[in-house]
Amino acid sequence: SPARELTQNPLQKTWEPYDNGLPAGHSAQRGVCMTNCPTLIVMVGLPARGKTYISKKLTRYLNWIGVPTKEFNVGQYRRDLVKKYKSFEFFLPDNEEGLKIRKQCALAALNDVRQYLSEENGHVAVFDATNTTRERRETICKFGEENGYKTFFVESVCVDPEVIAANIVQVKLGSPDYVDCSNDEATEDFMKRIECYKNSYETLDETLDKDLSYIKIMDVGRSYLVNRVMDHIQSRIVYYLMNIHVTPRSIYLCRHGESELNLKGRIGGDPGLSVRGKEFAKSLAQFINEQNIKDLKVWTSQMKRTIQTAEALGVPYEQWKVLNEIDAGVCEEMTYEEIQENYPLEFALRDQDKYRYRYPKGESYEDLVQRLEPVIMELERQENVLVICHQAVMRCLLAYFLDKPAEQLPYLKCPLHTVLKLTPVAYG
Amino acid sequence: AWASYMTNSPTLIVMIGLPARGKTYMSKKLTRYLNWIGVPTKVFNLGVYRREAVKSYKSYDFFRHDNKEAMEIRKRCALVALEDVKAYLLEECGQIAVRFLCTKQFSMGVVFFVESVCDDPEVIAANILEVKVSSPDYPERHRENVMDDFLKRIECYKVTYQPLDPDAYDKDLSFIKVINVGQRFLVNRVQDYIQSKIVYYLMNIHVQPRTIYLCRHGESEYNLVGKIGGDSGLSPRGKQFSQALKKFIEEQEIVDLKVWTSQLKRTIQTAESLGVLYEQWKILNEIDAGVCEEMTYAEIEAKYPDEFAMRDQEKYLYRYPGGESYQDLVQRLEPVIMELERQGNVLVISHQAVMRCLLAYFLDKSADELPYLRCPLHTILKLTPVAYGCKVETITLNVEAVNTHRDKPSLNSLPSSQSPVRMRRNSFTPRARADTVKHPRHHSVGSKPLDLLGPFPSLE
């Protein structure tokens, strides 16, 4: 039989086979990672070990790289069911009423997981609860098997009292559970809450749990035990978890100073800075000096305008080609009016789906995200960094840090001569 | 190279483990990967030094821990090796030196340990058969004798073997412990970017037998008229090739074959003929020739004679104006390599420059050789991992095609030197960057200087 004809998708410029005018299904787009079957990530650990922090961060990362992910926090289900939190006694191991409600919440959450993964096209679900007993984990494994999900455990183990105390201050004192308590009362109650779990805590064991797929994170990332990574997505998750840290730091994002082409309303190209752009570079240098940042790393793209901006700072900087502005292909160096005049269809398509729209012989925002992933990974590893980049690039990076979805990303406000200072706090 | 900006101080990777635990396998593979992504790396194998010192190996008795004379020889070999490591790091600008030791006491730059632990006797026996039987130590022996002698050799090491202990003695060291050929990993105190990449790489490689097939799209309409780049469809001969490819693949009877293409029409058309599921990767697209896209080489030479000349001078580093270089391509292709490592049987239908980059990774070709590797149309390269390397089989499907290969012109025909390629590109290179020229790295910003004049660290 002859090979099928190909047609080019006008929005994404990708070639797809078609049969009788309808797209046929022999090919798949390799975005960043293809998940063959849904994955259930199961958090494990005592309270105040960073499970929710990890859940939320991982969910944000996976969604950004294009893997539909959702987190399910069992504590939230409990708060919805039991309107008012009274005390740690709810969590006592012999509190029958408490146990019943907690099991009910876990099952409700699992039910929502099933709906998300099997009915709503979710790829990954993060099940955020203590899951500290082998029995509970076996229940979850069975649930995964019955539904055809791959299960991957993420355990956080930490015995450092300072870390635990800091966590309590950062995220527990402000919890809805303790809205009517003083800080001291809340801390005391929470410590007793942790005690409720300790006796029955069964950490993931190298021998007893040797057939499970998991990563055990020890002491906030000092060391890791990784067992039976099964597929690509689990490998990416492990890599990500091993690169994140909790050391306080700030990330500064800004664009290059105004360029000569900016002045003419033209996109792309490799122009130098305008007079005002050079002034901005000087102001930026002054601002950075005043901030007195410890060990600041400065990154630019390989385009003249970001490098000229960095030069004004008088400090070493690194050039990344992957930080280059989005490639506008045939529209490079045109004004929007010229694009509308010469490529009216393209102009219209871009407004329809700005995230997925790929310039002819150029890139889309979606392509940009894939290109920028190593930057995000290295930003996670680093501490204080200033990234001097471009409008579309900065929108992608910002969307990652502020958890903005694809629909909003291409419209995030990133004006010239504006610095965004990002500082991690609590869960965001 | 983009990756070398990331490493500030030299890294010493120290392999640890009993014999036949895959240390050399991992060393060589890791070295190949690091060199490919642009981090100059070299292996220093103690066994090689020992064979230099002791011309003919007699038996496992050499390795007994109570054999004083042999111990002296082995210690001296280790010191000579260390000297070479130092020389490589200081003089040859290498950033990573991978070497063997079965002890773990020395200090030099940033150290990262890779330990391989294995208690599965089948795996160990298989390793011995695969690589030890053909070792220079055992030139003409019977298999059983080799196996026997080698197992006794392992026993000699077991007496003094101290595995890395993350809970107590070694808790401050940076290391990865690979357990049972990658079933489990213990990772401790990863310090920097390079160590993080090493860990990720080691966690993605496997030793299951499999085959990787590399080929280009069938001949395209642009190939016929000598135009580079673009997004043209297959010529009639190209379509013929696709049919022949389909037949070839069917005859190979490959289990669970994955098929990957780029997002350019010509590779997709080629895959379509196979009638199987395939995945499109944008990062497998051909090198972007920028302003030279869709021109012939004659047109490029006429319109951009300087660019044309420069490309022949330094083809790996040369970046087309508004386009890419081979070096950029390697960076772009790194996720493909990582995923190829994870996968089993894969057929990658790509393009000339892309295929050269992938091939250079598998066959450990240098940056100088890479842009001149032969990847003709209508030819499949079948790669099978074997021992420490890769076996290549070239299969020409008998469908005629144009020749798109250009050799490096002889020195005489190159014009007199212009400014170095790296200095002259769209990317504006300011004077501040001294990195464009290789210089000996004595110390770098932010890290302690190496003790150049200090005594050799002892092994004790």
TrEMBL record, chain A:
Keyword Phosphoprotein belongs to the record: yes
InterPro entries the record matches: 6Pfruct_kin, 6Phosfructo_kin, His_Pase_superF_clade-1, His_PPase_superfam, P-loop_NTPase, PG/BPGM_mutase_AS
Gene Ontology cellular-component terms for this entry are: cytosol
Stored SMART domains: PGAM
PROSITE patterns linked: PG_MUTASE
CDD domains recorded: HP_PGM_like (cd07067)
Q: Which residues form the active site?
A: H256 (tele-phosphohistidine intermediate), E325 (proton donor/acceptor)
The record, for SUPFAM superfamilies, names: P-loop containing nucleoside triphosphate hydrolases, Phosphoglycerate mutase-like
The protein's UniProt keywords, in alphabetical order, are: ATP-binding, Hydrolase, Kinase, Multifunctional enzyme, Nucleotide-binding, Phosphoprotein, Transferase
Provide the GO biological process annotations.
fructose 2,6-bisphosphate metabolic process; fructose metabolic process
GO terms (molecular function) for this protein are: 6-phosphofructo-2-kinase activity; ATP binding; fructose-2,6-bisphosphate 2-phosphatase activity
Q: Where does substrate bind?
A: R255, H256, G257, E258, S259, E260, L261, N262, R305
Domain 6-phosphofructo-2-kinase, chain residue ranges per copy? 34-248
Per the record, the domain of life is: Eukaryota
PANTHER family given for it? Answer: 6-PHOSPHOFRUCTO-2-KINASE/FRUCTOSE-2,6-BISPHOSPHATASE, 6-PHOSPHOFRUCTO-2-KINASE_FRUCTOSE-2,6-BISPHOSPHATASE 4
UniProt similarity note: In the C-terminal section; belongs to the phosphoglycerate mutase family.
Protein's UniProt name: F264 bisphosphatase
Q: Which organism is it from?
A: Mionectes macconnelli (McConnell's flycatcher)
Automatic annotation (TrEMBL), chain B:
> Function, please?
Synthesis and degradation of fructose 2,6-bisphosphate.
- Keyword tags: Acetylation, ATP-binding, Hydrolase, Kinase, Multifunctional enzyme, Nucleotide-binding, Phosphoprotein, Transferase
Domain 6-phosphofructo-2-kinase per the UniProt entry, residue ranges: 3-209
**Protein origin, superkingdom:** Eukaryota
**Which family does the similarity line name?**
In the C-terminal section; belongs to the phosphoglycerate mutase family.
According to its UniProt entry, the protein's GO biological process terms are:
fructose 2,6-bisphosphate metabolic process; fructose metabolic process
Checking Pfam families in the record gives:
6PF2K (PF01591), His_Phos_1 (PF00300)
Q: What is this protein called?
A: 6-phosphofructo-2-kinase/fructose-2,6-bisphosphatase 2
Q: What is its EC number?
A: 2.7.1.105, 3.1.3.46
**One MF term from GO for this chain?**
fructose-2,6-bisphosphate 2-phosphatase activity
Q: Cellular component terms, GO, for this chain's entry?
A: cytosol
Subunit composition and interactions: Homodimer. Forms a heterodimer with PFKFB3.
Which sites bind substrate?
A: R216, H217, G218, E219, S220, E221, Y222, N223, R266
Q: Where is this region: Disordered?
A: 430-460
What PANTHER family does its record include?
A: 6-PHOSPHOFRUCTO-2-KINASE/FRUCTOSE-2,6-BISPHOSPHATASE (PTHR10606), 6-PHOSPHOFRUCTO-2-KINASE_FRUCTOSE-2,6-BISPHOSPHATASE 2 (PTHR10606:SF48)
